[in-house]
């Protein structure tokens, strides 16, 4: 059965069993991947999935069910309606989104990526390993290459009918030195098009592990810290992004409640949630409930300008959705989430401006942050001493702790090395007064 | 095409329901019916995997996996893989289900969550969220060596979190329990006490000051010590990581790597959240003594790693239809013979760290970092002021050597463990541990 036929059938069942409104979200993905183990390609993988989620509204209460068994569509719809009936009417519920004008979004489908053969996937994976092997005494214990073709259809009883195809390709490699005290590093790239230098991924990772050999210790204290895009995006994702989501604001679970149009970050820092970014990993013509995607200014020159909304949280405030309904998969209901998040700050040669500080490439433990208070404490990895405007010796181990909202106010500058780390796009960021424990 | 020498098929079919209550109101309620299969084929040293979810045709999946394996073998031949020999499992240790969750009306489950929320809402709590989950699924395993076995398993659980706020600051308290049993879990009034404890933790943390970092002696509570056993030791004992050069425990079997008081065990036969009757390769589950009296005794194995290193397989697991990976199950530090009072007296001045907000480990370098939920200053053996935002970090082998006393009060906690992009149910635990020297991170 084609997706449209399945969708129509689901909406018919919903109507038959008395739903006031109904929505079907169908996704079909095909992922081809290869895994590296100890400098060799160990395996190749092909994953096919197709499934659907049904959201129904009955007396202003929402029910949801999902399945990947297409001869159980009727049972799935009945189950969604049964779920809705357990709930009380929700006075905040307005409507499922109506059909809107969809933007043109560039660069989210690549024919080249779509048509990659297994042999191509294997040779790109080999390129990463070759990059690692350009250094002696360094191996790749693990790594992976992945290509995804996705197809998504959203239909509802208010006339939404939006289908979209996307592609993505990514490479990840872990490396470790084989002589002396082990030194590790990783590198990662993702894109919707065939524009990744896979050899470069391996080479960069190996170069980093190589430069981190024989680390020194560093004194504890308040220091200037430069966070590489890996480290910065990891910390932001775990401790900041949830605080701009409208449901957290409305439920009092965000430190940014009531802070609109106040200074929350250093002047110069601009943050945008962009669902229509060219080639963005989280770009698409609509969000996951069929609202047209858009670009929303979150922080402008330090000033908090907006939160992000899906149709439900927008309905509560009698405003429009910002196109930020996202789903983990077809098995879950949409909820508020970020799209591409772009950090922007005037660039300069920041290292040369720092007398005494540290550069941190990546962190471990970012997910242990407290996303409400914004407090975090992480271990810095692949870190270096910055002295008199120069990057010097590698640092064996250090902890960095602080509060994300203070960190945003202490942003002093940014590099010109803007990088797409999944759906977060950022340069290296220079922050003063960070608490470093050596 | 070179013919693969081995293939296997896991077919899974099941249904699950989850309910999320937010501030006493249903936020999400969700049922899923799912089925699909994961297929592997081995050709020389190369694996091919296919999974097909919601798409029919096991035969197509088997053929595709065989083609992938033989293609990889052709373009990137690796050292031939020899699987440890196969043996059909006995499925005779399934947990009993006293009350089938599916038969309990949804309304009753919603009432249960409301009860939990009310119990978590003590004075000072500004919001709560409570979730319920149940799943029942059947796993059917066959392979080219003639295996044919299956089991059905039911899992239930709940999680409660409470947020305390004074307008400016926020603190969270969380409790949860997941298990391989039926709805009878929720007939135990103890779960309401857990909800109360989540509320109390949040309120207490709000009044707590931030911890000061530094080095010194610490006592770890059973939850945090269990996370250490799982994250720092358990992962490093996974033989796939050992073979890929990512484990600090490589080449150390038979070596004394910990204080002689330390015994660490992984046991999937226990009826805890990490239970399974046979693993994702159809092998009987069994207990593994990872560390015995301080000596590294065994790694955790798949058939491939057992074939290479020797040892007993039975530790392959997968999430849904994904490819099997060497994983832990129920992992714990076994009881010693000290009680908490003796440990506090021995500690004298130091920190008592309790609970966890997750952690991360570099198994290759043997270093870790965990955030505790809370800490207490201990002075003269007396537990004193509560502090927040404390983390424990250090070197796995150093911490193992620095274990001075092991308590006699083993307690398990359930959760999910992530590796290779897959999450599987696990439990971990420990009695209290006294560590002579550790790095405690704070904010001040």
UniProtKB/TrEMBL annotation, chain A:
PANTHER family: METALLOPROTEASE PMBA. Residues 220-438 form the Metalloprotease TldD/E C-terminal domain. It comes from Methanohalophilus euhalobius. GO terms for cellular component: cytosol. InterPro entries: Metalloprtase-TldD/E_C, Metalloprtase-TldD/E_cen_dom, Metalloprtase-TldD/E_N, PmbA, TldD/PmbA_N, TldD/PmbA_sf. Pfam families: PmbA_TldD_1st, PmbA_TldD_2nd, PmbA_TldD_3rd. This is PmbA protein. One of its GO terms (molecular function) is metallopeptidase activity. Residues 113-210 form the Metalloprotease TldD/E central domain. GO terms for biological process: proteolysis. Residues 22-84 form the Metalloprotease TldD/E N-terminal domain.
UniProtKB/TrEMBL annotation, chain B:
GO terms for cellular component: cytosol. Residues 100-206 form the Metalloprotease TldD/E central domain. Residues 214-442 form the Metalloprotease TldD/E C-terminal domain. Gene3D superfamilies: PmbA/TldD superfamily (3.30.2290.10). Coiled coil: none annotated. One of its GO terms (molecular function) is metallopeptidase activity. Belongs to the peptidase U62 family. It comes from Methanohalophilus euhalobius. The lineage of its organism: Archaea, Methanobacteriati, Methanobacteriota, Stenosarchaea group, Methanomicrobia. Residues 7-69 form the Metalloprotease TldD/E N-terminal domain. This is TldD protein. Keywords: Hydrolase, Metalloprotease, Protease. One of its GO terms (biological process) is proteolysis.
């Amino acid at each position: 059965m084609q997706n449209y036929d399945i969708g129509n059938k689901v909406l018919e069942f919903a109507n038959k069993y008395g739903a006031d409104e109904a929505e079907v979200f169908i996704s079909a993905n095909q992922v081809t991947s290869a895994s590296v183990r100890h400098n060799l390609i160990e395996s190749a993988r092909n994953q096919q999935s197709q499934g659907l989620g049904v959201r129904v509204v009955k007396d202003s209460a929402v029910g949801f069910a999902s399945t990947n068994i297409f001869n159980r569509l009727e049972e799935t719809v009945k189950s969604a309606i049964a779920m809705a009936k357990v709930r009380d009417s929700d006075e905040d519920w307005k409507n499922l989104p109506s059909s809107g004008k969809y933007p043109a979004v560039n660069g989210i489908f690549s024919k080249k990526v779509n048509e990659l053969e297994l042999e191509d996937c294997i040779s790109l994976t080999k390129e990463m390993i070759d990059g690692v092997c350009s250094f002696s005494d360094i191996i790749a214990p693990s790594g992976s290459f992945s290509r995804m073709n996705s197809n998504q259809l959203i239909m509802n009883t208010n006339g939404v009918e939006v289908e979209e195809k996307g592609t993505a390709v990514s490479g990840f490699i872990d490396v470790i030195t084989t002589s002396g005290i082990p030194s590790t590093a990783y590198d990662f790239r993702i894109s919707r098009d065939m524009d990744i230098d896979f050899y470069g991924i391996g080479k960069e990772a190996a170069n980093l592990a190589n430069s981190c050999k024989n680390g020194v210790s560093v004194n504890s204290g308040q220091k200037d810290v430069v966070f590489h895009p890996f480290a910065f995006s990891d910390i932001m994702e775990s401790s900041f992004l949830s605080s701009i989501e409208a449901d957290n604001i409305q439920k009092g679970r965000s430190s940014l409640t009531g802070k609109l149009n106040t200074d929350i970050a250093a002047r110069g820092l601009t943050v945008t949630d962009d669902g229509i970014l060219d080639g963005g990993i989280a770009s698409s013509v609509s969000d996951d409930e069929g609202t047209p995607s858009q670009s929303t200014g979150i922080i402008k020159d330090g000033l908090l300008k907006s939160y992000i909304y899906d149709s439900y949280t927008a309905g509560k405030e009698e405003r429009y959705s910002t196109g930020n309904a996202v789903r983990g998969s077809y098995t879950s209901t949409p909820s508020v989430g970020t799209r591409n998040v772009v950090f922007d700050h005037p660039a300069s040669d920041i290292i040369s401006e720092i007398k005494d500080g540290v550069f941190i490439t990546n962190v471990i433990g970012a997910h242990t942050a407290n996303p409400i208070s914004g407090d975090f404490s992480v271990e810095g990895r692949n870190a270096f001493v910055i002295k008199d405007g120069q990057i010097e010796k590698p640092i064996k181990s250090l902890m960095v702790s602080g509060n994300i909202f203070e960190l945003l106010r202490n942003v002093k500058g940014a590099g010109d090395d803007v990088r797409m780390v999944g759906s977060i796009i950022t340069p290296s960021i220079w922050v003063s007064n960070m608490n470093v424990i050596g | 095409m070179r013919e693969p020498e081995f293939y296997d098929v896991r077919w899974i079919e099941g249904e699950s329901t989850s309910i999320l209550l937010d501030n006493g109101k249903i936020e999400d309620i969700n049922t899923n019916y799912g089925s699909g299969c994961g297929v592997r084929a081995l050709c020389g040293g190369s694996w091919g995997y296919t999974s097909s979810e919601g798409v029919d045709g096991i035969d197509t999946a088997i053929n595709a996996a065989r083609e992938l394996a033989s293609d990889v073998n052709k373009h990137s031949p690796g050292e031939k893989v020899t699987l440890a020999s196969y043996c059909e499992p006995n499925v005779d240790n399934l947990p009993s289900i006293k009350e089938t969750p599916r038969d309990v009306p949804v309304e009753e489950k919603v009432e249960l969550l409301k009860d939990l929320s009310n119990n978590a809402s003590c004075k000072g709590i500004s919001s709560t969220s409570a979730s319920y989950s149940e799943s029942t699924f059947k796993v059917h395993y066959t392979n080219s060596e003639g295996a044919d076995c299956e089991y059905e398993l039911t899992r239930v659980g709940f999680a409660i979190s409470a947020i305390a706020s004074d307008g400016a600051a926020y603190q969270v308290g969380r409790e949860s329990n997941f298990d391989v049993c039926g709805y009878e879990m929720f007939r135990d009034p103890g779960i309401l006490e857990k909800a109360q404890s989540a509320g109390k933790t949040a309120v207490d943390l709000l009044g707590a000051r931030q911890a000061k970092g530094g080095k010194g002696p610490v006592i770890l509570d059973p939850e945090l010590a269990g996370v250490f056993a799982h994250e720092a030791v358990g992962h490093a004992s996974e033989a796939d990581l050992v073979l890929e050069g990512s484990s600090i425990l490589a080449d150390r079997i038979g070596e004394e790597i910990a204080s002689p008081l330390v015994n660490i065990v992984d046991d999937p036969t226990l009826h805890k959240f990490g239970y399974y009757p046979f693993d994702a390769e159809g092998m009987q589950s069994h207990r593994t003594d990872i560390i015995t009296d301080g000596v590294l005794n065994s790694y955790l194995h798949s058939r491939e790693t057992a074939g290479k290193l020797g040892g007993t397989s039975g530790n392959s697991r997968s999430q849904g239809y994904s490819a099997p990976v060497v994983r832990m199950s129920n992992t714990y530090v076994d009881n010693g013979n000290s009680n908490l009072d003796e440990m506090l007296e021995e500690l004298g001045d130091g920190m008592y760290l309790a609970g966890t907000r997750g952690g991360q480990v570099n198994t290759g370098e043997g270093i870790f970092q965990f955030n505790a939920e809370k800490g207490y200053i201990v002075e003269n053996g007396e537990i004193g002021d509560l502090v927040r935002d404390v983390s424990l970090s250090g070197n796995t082998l150093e911490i193992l050597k620095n274990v001075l006393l092991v308590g006699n009060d083993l307690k398990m906690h359930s959760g999910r463990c992530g590796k290779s992009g897959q999450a599987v149910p696990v439990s971990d635990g420990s009695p209290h541990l006294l560590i002579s020297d550790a790095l405690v991170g704070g904010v001040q």
